[in-house]
Every structure is written in structure tokens, then in C-alpha cells.
Amino acid sequence: MSKKVAVVTGSNKGIGYAIVRGLCKQFEGDVYLTARKEELGQEAIKSLNSEELYPKFHQLDITDQASIDRMRDFLKNTYGGLDILVNNAGIAYKQDSIVPFAERAEVTIKTNYQGTLDLCNALFPLLRPHARVVNVSSIASNAIKKCSKEIQAKFLNFTITVDELTNLMNDFIQAAKNGDNESKGYPSSAYGMSKVGVSVLSEIQHRQLSADPREDILVNACCPGYVNTDMTLHKGHKTIDQGADTPLYLALLPPETKSPAGKFLLDREIKKWNE
Ligand code: NDP
Q1: Cβ(94) – ligand 1 distance below 6 Å
Q2: What is the distance between the alpha carbons of residues 140 and 187, in angstroms, rounded to a whole number?
Q3: C-alpha neighbours within 13 Å on the C-beta side of residue 18
């Protein structure tokens, strides 16, 4: 049988780095630390080597289709499949950012939602039976409560498709550009809306993979909690290893686990992300 393999996006620092550290300790297979910038990835690898942990490196920018395709081809040719995918890469503009809201909306959705989706579209065909997919979302996806009732109903429609979800995300970007997002029923939170996208996407992916002939593939979303990273300007109270705990728990769910499946978790507990 081919060697098992795990991939963590955006893992040169922060929570992703700690997820790689945890997988190196607990997962029996190769672990890929990935980064959009090669030199940052290599530095992170060196740092883990000094703890006698030996992840491998592959460049991966989830907003660059050529980079995604290289990652897919590499996995296919080297391993013939994929056993763990942790979609951790993400961005957030600082609260005092002077970047116009329209640009923040477009760039944030492009990375956190569209980049995650594009990577999944490329890598899901490689998922082997018993694979685990973890989408690092956020309790910030409770931004949905600030959407109009009509928009909420669209996002929470049990039969929503990926195309319909992508259309909603694009509609939000367009409204942000037109300056009428609030009157159209969308809040002025680019990050929150991007994570609404990730949380809803996870539920759709769960439905799709439950119907897939490959057995026992689980997709779950999670919030790592408020973590001390560059993203939070180091204000978060959790260490990166504490933040990595729930993503690692989900990535390492044993074979034939029935629950959690298609859920959203915080501190290893199933929560409703939309309340
Ligand atoms: P950091 O900013 O510390 O790290 C983010 C990582 O994502 C970096 O490695 C960054 O790379 C990478 N990244 C950004 N854009 C891309 C891209 N286009 N392609 C590939 N990698 C990319 O953030 P955190 O560790 O705090 O966050 C990790 C995840 O957890 C994010 O999804 C975030 O939204 C989520 N989260 C974090 C919380 C927290 O309290 N920290 C709370 C809730 C959710 P680079 O170094 O090149 O910028």
C-alpha cells in the first residue's frame, strides 16, 4: 500500500505550523508543511527539524491555480492519493486597515473561500477511503446573523450547491464594490463573510462525500479559538499548539468514526456556527 500523506495549507507559521508539529508527532505518514513563500516554508522546516521533527515541504499558494495544480500532480505522482487535508491558510485585514472595504471583501473571499474551494476541487479526487478533511473556519462565521433573513435563508438552505454558494459570495463582493452591501442584506465584515462561506462549504462537502463511493471520508469545520498569532496581533489567549488541538483531533479521527461528520467544532465540541 502507498505511504500515507497529510497536507496542511498555510503552515509556515501560526496555527498551521502547530498542526504540522502535531501531525509529525501523531500521524504515521509523510506530513507536508506548505507555504506560499518557499523561503518561509524552508525556515519553518528547519525550526521543526531542531525539535527532531521532519515534515516535508511543498510550495502552495491557494490563490494560484498553477501552484494548486503542481501540488495535485506532485501528490498524485508521489503518493497516488491523499489521507489528510487541513485547509488552514487564511488572511484577515487588521481592524484599523485603511484598505477600502470593497478590496478587503474581494481579497479576503478570494483567499479564504475561493482559494480553499479551488484547492479542494483539485485535491478531493485524490482523497483515499478514510481520508479526513478539516476546514479551519471561525466563530466569526456567526456574521451570518447580521445578514438579512432572506440572505440567511439562502446560505442555510439544506440543498444549497457549491455554485449557489459561490454566487452568493460573489454577490457579496459585488455589493461591497457598489457600496450597497448593507441594503442588499450583507454585513460589512469581509472576514466574517469569508468564513460563512467556509462553514457552509464544509456542510456541502460533507453531503457530497457522504454520497461518494469512497468509504468513510469525513469533512469537518472548526474554530481554533482565539490564538496568539500574527493574525490576532498576538492578542489571542491560546498558544498555537492549543489552537491546533481541535484541527488535529479532527484530522486524526479514527477509521469508521460516525461523529463528528460535517460538523463545526470549537474546543473539540460540536457547536452551531450560525447562532
Ligand atoms: P497567521 O496569519 O498566523 O497564518 C496564516 C497562514 O496562512 C500563513 O502561513 C500565511 O502565509 C498563510 N496564507 C495566507 N494566504 C495564503 C495563500 N494565498 N496561500 C497559502 N497560504 C496562505 O494566521 P493564524 O495561524 O492565526 O490562522 C490560521 C487559520 O485559523 C486561518 O484560516 C484563520 O482565519 C483561522 N482562525 C484564526 C484565529 C486566531 O485567533 N488566530 C481564530 C479563528 C480562526 P504567509 O506567512 O505567507 O502570509
Answers
A1: no
A2: 12
A3: 18
Q: What is the dihedral of CA 226, 231, 232, 237, to 10 degrees?
A: 40
DSSP at 169: H
Q: How many Cβ atoms from other residues are within 10 Å of residue 94's Cβ?
A: 10
Give the type of residue at 189.
S
Residue 265 Cα, ligand 1 centroid: separation in angstroms? Answer: 18
Ligand 1 touching residue 232 (CB < 6 A): yes
Strand duo 269-271 + 82-87: pairing = unpaired
Q: What is the pLDDT of residue 2?
A: 78
Of ligand 1's listed atoms, the one at least distance from the Cα of 226 is 40
**Whole-angstrom distance, CA of residue 245 vs CA of residue 249:** 6
pLDDT under 70 in the chain at which residues?
1
Cα–Cα distance measured from residue 240 to residue 172, given in angstroms and rounded to the nearest whole number: 31
pTM: 0.98
Phi-psi region of 267 (alpha: psi -120 to 50; beta: other; left: phi over 0): left
Q: Ligand 1: does its nearest atom lie under 6 Å from the Cβ of 91?
A: yes
Joined grid coordinates for residue 185: 442584506
Q: Output the nine-digit C-alpha cell for 254.
A: 479514527
Residue 11: phi, psi to the nearest 5? -115, 20
